[in-house]
Amino acid sequence: MVGMQEFRFFDSAGMPIIVETATNPGGRNPEFHTPDKLIDGIVIYGSESNASKTSKWLDEKKGNVTFKFASLVRVASYEWVTCEDLPDRDPVSWEIEGQVMIGDAWTLLQRVSNYPTTSSRSATVEFKIWPSDDPGKYTYVCIFM
Question: How many domains does the chain have?
């Protein structure tokens, strides 16, 4: 199983990029742990009530998550927040790819392998992907696990 609390994108000026939707095609999400939780702006810390711990995404199949933006954007960096509970659910290897329109080929923006994710819970993990060889703009960005 894989899980994260939040996933955020930023432009080259460090400004947040608004995500319209987050989907997990073919994923198997436990009740209340759907991909929309990745963009709800809520981070849960260990001492908070169990009732509020539903604001995280979990996928039993370790599937991909596709994010859709309102318009073409250039993603310069991204960050994600570890879940408040089990560190063995943290992603350790993934690819970030961009797509202009549905049906277009995906373009690799970054590949991360065997990342030593922190054991701290509700921690923010940051990555820069720009400047890169691909200064393109995309409507969709997918994290392939």
Answer: 1
